[in-house]
Structure formats: structure tokens, C-alpha cells
Amino acid sequence: MKMDWKNLGFGITKTDYNVRCWYRDGKWGELEVSSSQEISIHMGATCLHYGQESFEGLKAYRGKDNRIRLFRYDENAKRMARSAKGIMLAEVPKPLFQEAIRKAVKLNEKYVPPHGLGASLYIRPLLIGTGPEVGVKPSKEYLFMVFVMPVGPYFKEGFKPVDIMITRDHDRAAPLGTGHLKVGGNYAASLTSVAKAHKNGYATALYLDAKEKRYIDECGPANFFGIKNNTYITPDSQSILPSITNMSLQEIAISMGMKVEKRAVPLAELNEFEETGACGTAAVITPIKKIYDPDENRTYTFGDGKDPGPVTTKLYEELVGIQYGDREDKYGWITVME
Ligand code: PLP
Ligand code: COI
């Protein structure tokens, strides 16, 4: 195996093993290890017809000491449990979720990229309804899987500012819909907006609230934040995914002596931000230099329109420093693998 660690993008790479667990007759079975990338399910499975599926995304990081670190994976377990409740999937108990993650990482240890290259092992837990139903109802059987792959930055720019575009003609999520859950349907609903942004040369789409189109929701596969007057400001909305990265940045901002505001963020406030960014596991922190609003035919520019701003840079260095074990984890976020 010869990996080109430095040029990894965010894509599928085959690794050696994945883990699986079936839910049948009202209970979870044993965790199984597989080296096949395929699954065999009934063509009537509820995940295929009615989108009864949830996934998660987290990463394993290799430190200078060569040890492998997981970042806040208890939070992913909790979020997947919330998603399960929201669309009536069988809930994966936290100990099973965490054991599956550790096992999938351990079995594929050699695919965790070396320290210092900005790459990591992306971990994708997936929970699907496998039982056949043709009426709209929850499945009686479920499959929980975890597969992993080494990745580089989600946005090819890495920690370089990107330009994004507001889209108003499609909504990713309804106000009382499933936007706050990590379920596949939200991503299907976002594809046209993201494709439109790409077609116009933008890294991704900025979604506004579906009801009034007056407030910022989130930003492609990531949450949005803005910085002004030593304050970290991030949208509070029922239809955005509560990002674990964002939660962590809010705590880091406070410990850097900043104020944090989680509240509705009117679009008009874009005029006032000194810096803006998108944050998430895959996106890490992706600084935003320009936001184009095609309906108003205007562009908001942040910072010098070229480099990441000073606050975004400080937040990024602290977050990534903790994840790779280069900075002290005073929050207790890291699990070092045995
Ligand atoms: N928003 C959406 C729509 C996402 O898909 C993700 C990725 O998981 C995030 C935000 C960021 O969440 P997290 O920081 O927990 O990865
Ligand atoms: C992540 O950041 O882990 C995500 O799940 C985003 C993904 C849709 C690429």
C-alpha cells in the first residue's frame, strides 16, 4: 500500500475493514467485522424508499507521539440517537456506537495519516432501515455500520478563504422538518442548491431560513459563524444541524476572552462582520472571503478578501492543535486510542 498522504482530497478510499451490527427481533446483535465494501439488502428496504437513514461524520487524528485521537465521539453518539428518535430508527446504544468506532479505527490503523500533513481518518457511521415495507412506516430491522477512509480537506482550498453563494430557490430543510437531524433526506434536498453554487464558481451554498429568507441558517455541510467586536456569533435556528465543531469553537472563543452569541443572524448583519467562516468535521474551519447574493446582486467581502482573519486563525489553531494533540486538551474532548 502506497498512500499519497499529501494530496488526499475528501473522497472514498478503500480501507481493509468495516464493522456492522444488525437490529432484529427488537434487539441489537453482535458487532461483526467485514472486509467487503458491499451490503446486501431487500429492495423494499425503508432506507431506499422513504429515506429512513441517518449518518454521522467524525475523524481520528494521529499525534506527533504516533498515537491516535478521537474527538468528542460521545457527541456523535448522542446526535445519532437524536436522529434515530426523529425518524423512528432503532437507537444505537452509546457503548455500541463507541465500540464500533474504536474497532473500525483500530482495524484500519495504518490508514490514519501521519501527523503534520493536515490529513485524518474520516469515520462514517451509518444507520439504515433494512426491513421491507411498501406502506410508509418504520422498518422492523436495521443495520448499523462504520466505515473509514483517509481524507484531506473537504474544500480543496483547505485553510484558505472561499467564496460562497446564497440560494433562495430551494430549501434544504423546513422550519419544523428534519434540518436539525443528520438524515440523508436533508442532503438530497440540498443537492440542487450546492450544484447551482458550484456551477456559478462558488465553493458551496449559504442557506437562509426557509420561512422568511431573512436569517442565515447554515453553509453547505457546515455551520456558519461571524466575528465582530470580539464576539463569535452563530445562528440559532431549528433547521440547522447542531455542529460539534461549532459547539467546541464557542467554548474556545470564550476561553480566548471573546463573547459568544447564539441567536438569529439577519442577512443584513453580513455588512457588519469582520470575519466569517464555515465549521464542521469535514470543513474544519473554512474561512469565507466573499458571499454573493444573486437576488440582491451584491457581494459581501470579509477581511482583506485574501487571507484568513486573525480571530479565525486563532480559533483554527487551537481547535486543530487539540485534535492532533499538539495543544493541551483542557476540555477533556480527546480519547486517545489504546
Ligand atoms: N451542518 C451540516 C449540514 C453538516 O452536514 C455538518 C457535518 O456534520 C455540520 C453542519 C457540522 O457538524 P459537525 O461539526 O458535528 O461535523
Ligand atoms: C461532516 O462534516 O462530517 C459531514 O458529515 C459533512 C458531510 C456531509 C460531508
Helix content: 10-25%
Gyration radius over CA? 20 Å
Q: Output the CATH topology of the largest domain.
A: D-amino Acid Aminotransferase, Chain A, domain 2
| Major beta-sheet overview | 9 strands, antiparallel
Query: How many runs of DSSP E, i.e. beta strands?
Result: 18
So how many helices? 6
How does this model look, in words?
This protein is α+β, with helices and mostly antiparallel strands and 338 residues long. The protein folds into two domains: 5-151, D-amino Acid Aminotransferase, Chain A, domain 1 (2-Layer Sandwich); 162-323, D-amino Acid Aminotransferase, Chain A, domain 2, CATH 3.20.10. The protein has six helices and 18 strands. The chain has helices at 46-50, 73-86, 94-107, 184-199, 244-255, 310-323, and strands at residues 18-24, 27-28, 32-34, 53-55, 58-62, 68-71, 120-129, 142-151, 162-167, 205-208, 216-219, 223-228, 231-235, 259-263, 275-280, 284-293, 298-301, 334-336. The strands form two sheets. Strands 1, 2, 3, 4, 5, 6, 7, 8 and 18 form a nine-stranded antiparallel β-sheet that branches. Strands 9, 10, 11, 12, 13, 14, 15, 16 and 17 form a nine-stranded mixed β-sheet that branches. The longest helix is centred in the middle third of the chain and has 16 residues, at 184-199. The mean pLDDT is 97. Pyridoxal-5'-phosphate (PLP) is lined by residues 57, 218, 221-223, 241, 243-246, 280-281. The site of pyridoxal-5'-phosphate has 12 residues, from helix 5.
Tag the structure with descriptive keywords.
338 residues, D-amino Acid Aminotransferase, Chain A, domain 1, D-amino Acid Aminotransferase, Chain A, domain 2, nine-stranded antiparallel β-sheet, nine-stranded mixed β-sheet, binds pyridoxal-5'-phosphate, binds 2-OXO-4-methylpentanoic acid
